[in-house]
Amino acid sequence: MRVQCVMLASLFVGLVKATGRARNGLVKSEMSKPINPFRCFNSSPEVIRLAVMLYVRFPLSLRNVEDLLSERGVDVCHETVRFWWNRFGPVFEAEIRRRRVNHMRGFRHWRWHLDEVYVKINGKTHFLWRAVDHEGEILESFVTKKRNKSAALKFLKKALKRHGQANKIVTDGLRSYPAAMRQVGNLDRREMGQWLNNRVENSHLPFRRRERAMLRFRQMKTLQKFVSVHASFHNHFNSERHLVDRQTFKLRRSAAWAEWQSISA
Questions:
Q1: What are 166-182's pLDDT values in tens digits?
Q2: Alpha carbons 137 and 100: distance in angstroms, whole number
Q3: Of the candidates 15, 104, 170, 244, which lies 20 to 30 Å from 113 by C-alpha distance?
């Protein structure tokens, strides 16, 4: 009788351990799966992607996006569009940036173009720093309250940490650039000249059009979030239609749309 009790007890302990291992394996497998960002929303992911893309990519207001969705049979409020872009805009931006940065690591950075522009927030002047590569790809966008050496140093360190070194760095005549580059150790790679920085100057135009449609910004963190999201969306959908023929442009546009549908799927 005692032997049977011992055998039953050992069998029970084995079953408990096996159940525990099975539960641990199930938990690990669930943790390894990517979390669906749309799991708590009744609207379909396609509608949310479309609303966020329309608002960020084109110079439209929240009510313009609401009207466009209503014409497509989707009844949502403009405040819903605002919530969607604040919730999912950074999610889409992070995924687009991760894919593009991983893809660009295999290519050499020939030349960077750095520039800064004035941005008004509640009547106060802030500065938007931007780094663009030789093909017009927006590498980094950074918002600061000042335009001194400390701000330029933070901007340079952030860009270098994410994208590595460039062979040449084109800047304007701002003295904060050579001071920061001297501390970083790449002052010998600096270039400066008339019309050399037109590529980054032109990269501000899509943001300026979007800024006017949004009636400017009210908080610095909102500006930083939007310029980061807008830059990633611009890079993703920029097919360089003025440089290629119609057939190549259509292929690039189809590839961009196919990749967009797979983001956070």
A1: 899 999 999 999 999 99
A2: 10
A3: 244
Residue 143 backbone dihedrals phi, psi, to 5 degrees: -110, 130
The answer on 202 and 245 residing in a single domain is no
Pair 200, 120 in one domain: yes
CB contact at 8 A, 114 and 125: no
Identify the sign of the CA torsion 144, 147, 153, 155: positive
Residue 249 lies in a domain: yes
Residues contacting 165, CB < 8 A, separation 6+: 109, 186, 189
Is 72 exposed, middle or buried (CB count within 10 Å of its CB: 0-12, 13-18, 19+)? exposed
Residues 208 and 147 in one domain: yes
CB 168 within 8 A of CB 109: no
pTM: 0.81
**What is the reported pLDDT for 193?**
85
Domain residues for 146? Answer: 111-218
SS3 category, 121:
strand
Cβ proximity of 121 and 220 under 8 Å: yes
Q: What is the mean pLDDT of residues 62-79?
A: 94
DSSP conformational letter for 130: E
